[in-house]
């Protein structure tokens, strides 16, 4: 039975939840396929996550391997293939709690970087799991700056082998997933040396464990890097190489080859490598970043209509905490952001697909824009969603702090997304570099990519809003965001030029502007997200209340951003203080409007109870019963040796009854 | 040997680290005593935290009990007493990783709320650990709003007993520390009923476990609430009471008594109860909030001068990451905040001591101000420091995400401080209520407490700064902070009045202002923190460079606050856009100045390697060696059953060597 405090929230929905779910999925047929995958996975006890919060790191790893192996069987059984429509829903249905994810990266890197011959040899073996692959790039002392990697691969013409070494402790490979305990092979990135000359970073296939007994191969030292904030299921590993010899054929040679005599040959363009990073950054947004925020919103909002605390009106019963303005102000902007980023993700996917088609036609023109957008949005979305999950956690008070709420593990996992696949600050600076370049080009009247043409149109007007309702007009707020993005970019470009003209060296000048460059990059992405949300709403069907509620969310997303960054909008007087007061009034009004549909809006995300894995967030809202039942199963409710060892001797002299 | 990249940072300190440590400790004699306690604790293997990151929740609990029991012996051995000068350093030296902390709260509540007879009976038993106490207030469905607690205590005149019940699942006691597995007794807060009439919440001593065999007493259901985000060492518990009978004498009766015939007698003032909460909120700031931020700064800053990544100047070696402006902008404001909050903590302690003396003379006049300041600063400091620790964690990239960095557990622990002892938003609203009341009083010409007299002096001037150096004048920035606090308070007071005058009911009007009330409360605390830092610097001795470096930190703290909240200062034109650009320039300049002393400034916190328990933060900066050595000891480097069960069957068909 559904908690009546939750049930009542669903009766007053202003829109069709099922229609909104279909919109999010990209059509009702997609919804049907997704639900079938979820049902198949969740009804299979091997994939259960029931005891997850009670398990040790070792137990989590073992379960992840068990699931990965079972998944092969399951896919065969269900007739799911890697190219089928079900495939993309499997990982989400498993909540990512599965091993051998790096095995896929291993395969992808061979497919992309390997010669036809290499692909023919390795891909079938990997597909059949006759080996387990990993991907060893990051080192103890080196991450983002690939040129700094210290691992070496020296070509020995006499034996036609590469000799691999990690010459210093900082050169040790560190972090690669699946490498700590599982992998038999890995792709090692190393500085290639031929006849004493360094040719830079190249990829090499290296066997690290025996296929007979899994013992480490000669010259290999490897193991697990130990406990992390999350990812207990993944065996992130370390790897030391000492004079490890591999055949010449093991250097991935689609783009570069070493001939038997040591001649180095570079063939084809390496630009495609940047495209691979772009792919990864875009692909992680949906499963690794948006899904956790959507889950956190679902948990926190359902809990906030079930939890009653203090009285809002004297004489009445205690109020649902979602009726407090401060609680609305914590949660509803996160909900709006989840929708905003869902739509920007669609935009990025489309752009990416277009870019991919162009690249296949050997046209690389879109690459810089794609790189800038994927870098900037990876940073902005991971940052925003991580903060959002944390807000949801805190908004649930003490119960949010219990692992059983599901919120701590959502938080500790999403946090990693700010760090992996490019540290966020560095990514934002890449976007900023693109912005500055385009701004200079646009100022000089040169053509620039579509997403930055607005930089050319610097206007010195004022915001035309006359009352608080004007701020519910997408034109008004989109223009305000655009103005801020242009101002921050142009001001920073000017500061940079001033510094250089005053004699500061270029790299020093750049460093002295980086705090402001990061602001400009964020403002650019924020502007595009707002604009895209508004344009998406415009195109929605007006039926079933969908467009109306999406418009409210779009307004909230935009006004929350202004309310939280008032200085950026006030700075040059584009927005006046009186207008800022209108923004505040409209923003606070909107909270009240969206609060009425808050539960239907999270229901539309369509998470099952098993996928939420939360005592606070279940569909029926029976929070207290579930917390109690679940806590009783905790291993901490078994007898502890502490009683016999320490408590009994302490207490044994006391009277039996005081 | 010290990593040369770290060693060089210490050679150029602009001040005496030892003198600054003494300043932080409150004198060199205090430093001596603290170091002696730390030495005694850290040299004792029973107190070791070496394997902490590898332990399960059960193992952590057992270790915490072992340490608590051993601590009694140690104190005796060392001649440390609860009233001695060493006492306050013990908890810090243990990093809080010890059981029976609620036993102390049990004792304190009896001392404060119990009659002389009750104190005489229970305190000696508790002191000798002949029982283990806990404190059962929070319920599954009720936290902050004490009047909503559902547990009942019905007086039975026939047997002269109270009959205790948790009538619904939401009435179950939930969260009390030491109660899940250890406690034999607890203080239960329950609604008192006599002859069918409710007299509100009262405290009762209830035995929950046998002193003979630790089995649960009749009518008691109790256990551990399971895994949490941190606090694995604490057995937070649940408690169900079913017709549990306790003698009339077990109601703590200093302020209220039930006579044998059922007559209810209230005696003395209960105002002192609020003072108890004030005490707790102030006392937690130092150990639970400031220490973790100081540790996080130490770890992140030392790491940032050892880690080199990318090139700042072409042709040079990779740069220390602390040389990047963006890294400075992440870490140095946190360092400044740690100092700012250390000094405001001293201020609050002094105010509290003064209040305590007044209360002993039956003068309760200072209570409202003390309550407002302790609530507001508890919220502001926990919030700021939690965010600060998270920034430190992220600033260390991947390695910050490893538990071995120490940062994840600092973060997950400090986060709880935002929730316990009063949820932060609710506390800020209590401060805001005080501010609004005082503002109205001040506007009407009535006297108000010292910390809010500034509210009376509303000035409509403009910031007089003429160039960026003017913003290094404490008068200039303190005045700006004051102006913002007054504006936010007076504007919100006006909105509140307008709403009420337009016919909105008082409680609705209040709710509609809460988002802005929270802003006003934060601005008030921020202003006081800046003012106090500036006044503290003013009084410092000018010798040994201490005053100079503290002045820089004070400036940075103040300007960072303006830079991060530009809108608040720009809104009514008090600060102009041109002045805001001066703030930005001065702020960015300061980063460069403080960067030079960053390592000495964290060295002054004087944490030992054992207390940091971090592979990244050790005094010698041998980061990579330590990460590697430590990871090898992880239980994840033992053989996993996953190999025999899943990997071997998968791989056994493969060729032995590819």
From TrEMBL, chains A, B:
Keywords, comma-separated and alphabetical: FAD, Fatty acid metabolism, Flavoprotein, Lipid metabolism, Oxidoreductase, Peroxisome, Phosphoprotein
GO CC term, one of those recorded: peroxisome
Domain Acyl-CoA oxidase C-alpha1 as annotated: residue spans: 274-436
Acyl-CoA oxidase C-terminal domain ranges (all copies): 474-651
Binding-site residues, FAD: 138, 177
An individual GO BP term: very long-chain fatty acid metabolic process
Predominant location: other
Entry-linked PANTHER family: ELECTRON TRANSPORT OXIDOREDUCTASE, PEROXISOMAL ACYL-COENZYME A OXIDASE 2
Similarity comment: Belongs to the acyl-CoA oxidase family.
Protein name per Swiss-Prot or TrEMBL: ACOX2 oxidase
UniProt organism field: Cinclus mexicanus (American dipper)
């Amino acid at each position: 039975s559904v908690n009546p405090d939750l049930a009542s929230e669903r009766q007053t929905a202003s829109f069709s939840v099922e229609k909104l779910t279909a919109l999010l999925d990209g059509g009702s047929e997609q919804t049907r396929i997704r639900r079938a995958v979820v049902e198949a996975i969740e009804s299979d006890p091997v994939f259960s996550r029931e005891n997850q919060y009670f398990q040790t790191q070792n137990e989590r790893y073992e379960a992840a391997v068990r699931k990965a192996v079972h998944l092969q069987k399951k896919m065969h059984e269900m007739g799911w293939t890697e190219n089928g429509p079900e495939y993309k829903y499997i990982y989400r249905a498993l909540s990512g709690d599965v091993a051998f994810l790096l095995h896929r990266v291993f395969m992808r890197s061979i497919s992309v970087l390997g010669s036809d011959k290499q692909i023919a040899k390795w891909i079938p073996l990997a597909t059949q799991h006759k080996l387990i692959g990993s991907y060893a790039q990051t080192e103890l002392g080196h991450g983002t700056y690939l040129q700094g990697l210290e691992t070496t691969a020296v070509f020995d013409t006499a034996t036609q082998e590469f000799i691999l070494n990690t010459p210093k402790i900082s050169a040790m490979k560190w972090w690669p997933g699946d490498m700590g305990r599982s992998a038999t092979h890995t792709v090692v990135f190393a500085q290639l040396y031929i006849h004493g000359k360094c040719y830079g970073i190249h990829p090499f296939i290296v066997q690290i464990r025996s296929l007979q007994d899994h013992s480490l191969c000669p010259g290999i030292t490897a193991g697990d890097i130990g406990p992390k904030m999350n990812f207990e299921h993944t065996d992130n590993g370390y790897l030391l190489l000492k004079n490890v010899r591999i055949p010449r054929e093991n250097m991935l040679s689609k783009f570069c080859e070493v001939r038997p005599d040591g001649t180095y040959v570079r063939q084809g363009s390496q630009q495609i490598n940047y495209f691979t990073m772009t792919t990864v950054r875009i692909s992680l947004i949906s499963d690794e970043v948006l899904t956790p925020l959507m889950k956190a919103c679902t948990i926190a909002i359902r809990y906030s209509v079930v939890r009653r605390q203090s009285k809002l009106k004297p004489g009445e019963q205690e109020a649902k905490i979602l009726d407090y303005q401060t609680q609305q102000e914590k949660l509803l902007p996160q909900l709006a952001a989840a929708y905003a980023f869902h739509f920007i993700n669609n935009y990025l996917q489309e752009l990416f697909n277009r870019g991919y088609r162009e690249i296949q036609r050997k046209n690389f023109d879109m690459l810089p824009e794609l790189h800038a957008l994927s870098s900037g949005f990876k940073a902005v979305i991971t940052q925003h969603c991580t903060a959002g999950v944390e807000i949801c956690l805190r908004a649930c008070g003490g119960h949010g702090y219990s692992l059983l709420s599901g919120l701590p593990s959502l938080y500790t996992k999403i946090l990693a997304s700010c760090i992996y696949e490019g540290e966020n600050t560095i990514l934002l600076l890449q976007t900023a570099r693109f912005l500055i370049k385009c701004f200079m080009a646009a100022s000089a009247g040169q053509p620039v990519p579509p997403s930055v043409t607005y930089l050319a149109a610097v206007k010195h007007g004022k915001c035309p809003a006359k009352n608080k309702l004007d701020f519910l007009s997408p034109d008004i707020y989109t223009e305000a965001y655009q103005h801020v993005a242009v101002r921050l970019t142009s001001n920073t470009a000017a500061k940079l030029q001033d510094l250089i003209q005053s004699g500061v060296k270029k790299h020093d000048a750049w460093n002295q502007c980086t705090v402001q460059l990061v602001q400009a990059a964020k403002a650019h992405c924020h502007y595009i997200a707002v604009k895209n949300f508004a344009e998406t709403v415009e195109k929605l069907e007006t039926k079933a209340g969908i467009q109306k509620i999406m418009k409210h969310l779009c307004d909230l997303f935009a006004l929350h951003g202004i309310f939280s960054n008032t200085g950026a909008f006030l700075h040059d007087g584009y927005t006046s203080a009186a207008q800022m007061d209108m923004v505040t009034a409209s923003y606070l009004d909107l909270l009240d409007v969206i609060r009425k549909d808050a539960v239907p809006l999270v229901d539309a995300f369509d998470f099952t109870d098993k996928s939420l894995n939360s005592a606070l967030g279940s569909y029926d809202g029976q929070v207290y019963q579930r917390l109690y039942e679940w806590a009783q199963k905790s291993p901490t409710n078994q007898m502890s040796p502490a009683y016999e060892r320490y408590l009994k001797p302490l207490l044994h002299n006391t009277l039996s009854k005081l």
